[in-house]
Every structure is written in C-alpha cells, then in structure tokens.
Amino acid sequence: MRGIRYLRSLGFDIPAFHPSEHTHHKSLFLTHTLAVNDFLIAAAILPATAADITVRDIKHDLTLKHTQTMIVPDGWIDFRINDKTQVCIWLEMDMGTMDQKPFRKKISALVTFSKEAYTRVFGTPSLTIAFATPTGERRFNTMLDWTQKELTALHAEHVADMFRFLRQSLPPEAKEGTHSSRHGEDEHTPFGSLIETLRLEKQRTLKLPDVSTVYRMLVDLGSETSGNIPPELHETIRNVSIGFGFLAFDQLPDGNKAAFIHRILREQKYRNSNHLTLTPQQAEILHRIAGTVNIAYDPGQQEDDTQRNFPYADIEKRMPDGFVLHEP
C-alpha cells in the first residue's frame, strides 16, 4: 500500500492505520488501491517538480473512513500555490466497474455534500473533485457524459467547474506481465494529472529544485513519517531516497555525501543487507524524481532487476576528504 506514507513528512495529522481492512485483497480492490496510492504518492512529491506548490495535508480513504461517516473520497489533498492559493483535490479513482445509475447517484451525492457538509467536515470551501481512471479513453468520455447528464437533471450545471476528469496509467505493480512506458504518456501519470488539474502547465514554467534539495526532502520525508504511516509506504520512501542518494551522490555537497555513507553503513549493519533492490514501482518513482533534476535513470525491464539493484560494497571508500568514518 503506497498512499498514506508521504503524509506526515509535512507535519500531516494522520490517525493510526488499520491493517485489518486489507487482510483479504481481491484483485480488483488491490488494483484500485495501487492506483489510489500511486496518485497520492505523486501528490506528496509533486513539490519536487513544482517549486511553487506545497502540500499541506493528504488524507487517504482508510483514514477518512474512521473520522467521518458521510461520503468519503478515495483521497483528499490540500495544495497551496505560492503559499497563498488553496486548491483542495477530492480524488475519486474510477476502475470502470460502476454502471450509469450508481455513478450518477454518486455525482448527485457529491453535489449535495459539497453544498451542505463539505466545508464543515474538511474545514475549507476549496473543492475540486477529480475523477481519475486508468481504464482508457472510452471510460473517460463515459464519465464526462454521465456527469453532464446528472448535473443537467439536477439543474446544477453551475457547479460543473467543480469536476475534473483525468486519465491515469496504472502503477507497474497493477499491470501483470507488462512494462510501463515512460515515454509519451506523461500526461497520464499522476504527476501529469495533478499538474493538469491545478492548471499550472499553461500558467507558468516549472522551477526545478537542485539535487541536494530533493535529497534532503526525501530524507526528511522518511524521518518524519516513520511510525505514522503504513510500513509498506514508509519502505517505499526509504528505498527511493536511498536509490536517489546513489544516483545523485557525485552532485551532493560533501556533508550530504558523508551522511549518506553513514546511512548505508547502518543499513549494512542493522538490516544485514549488502544491497538495495527496488520494486518496479519504486524504480518508476525514482525515475520520475531523478528526471526533475536532469539525472538520467532507466529502471530497465520489469523482469530484470539489474538497473534496480544498488550494491553497498566499498561505500566507505567514497567518504569525502576531511570527514571521519564512524562505526554505525
């Protein structure tokens, strides 16, 4: 599960996770969960690719189900642009399984909730309802059509601008036996979808952070989320930050290099590990982050982990001059 973990990195108030809800995964439910989590991960690390954006809060449906009894989104994200403009995204991840009648019933419920209870429950009037689907163009157009029909039936055409519809690729782990392309489909990734939703691509040129800023962000993210989010997501943060450290090592300041080396030595000692192997999804996240600072990284094919393997051997020999190697 990949969604809640980036939450507390920015000081998010996240209640305890309830693993019992995921004891028995059906295939479709698991695919839906992976798609939601991939979207929320992208939201959490979007500031690495868009310097004017900050994330104030992220809520997963697993948390929301225990804090409210009304209609619950698959995810809720509080973005700030230039620390001023608030843009809150209500995520509905659609897997193409809902027929017209229940889908339109959901649209009606969302319209009612937005008018009667949303501000009280979430503490803000800012609301953009984003329906994301990884199931293709046909479903995308169908959702548009059904939403338009329901808003017309409700005489609520004036709230149409509250809705957004996004095409999203499935995360690699949800594609059995396939390898996701990283070329020509950026607009369908969570990053592309989020930027599209916030309408930033036409308003400004994205300002990319430097390598050390991204590395510190990932390290801080792992430290601040430890113990507060599901273990699987924290493991993703940890592994991606280590992978980024290897990729960016030569561009890091000497102080960061020394800290990274000591971190790897601790990994060797306390985890009894001599290498890190990323999952395909973790490698895809690393690819995206590395690309924001112009570091080339190709995760390779899903069935071959060569490009996803980072050996720890002889890391201590890379200690910069003037820094002392300490026993972990």
Distance, first to last CA: 30 Å
What fraction, in percent, of the residue positions are helical?
Answer: 40-55%
Total of DSSP H or I helical runs spanning 4+ residues? 10
Strand content: 5-15%
How many discrete structural domains? 2
> Any low-confidence stretches, pLDDT <50, length ≥5?
6-15, 17-26, 171-208
Task: Please count the beta strands (DSSP E, at least 2 residues each).
Answer: 7
Q: H/E series, N to C?
A: HEHEEHHEHEHHHHEHE
For the biggest β-sheet, the strand order reads 1-2-3-4-5
Assembly classification: single chain
Overall mean pLDDT stands at 78
Please give the radius of gyration in angstroms: 21 Å
- Main beta-sheet strand count, sense and barrel state: 5 strands, mixed
Shape: elongated
**Helix/strand-derived class?**
alpha/beta
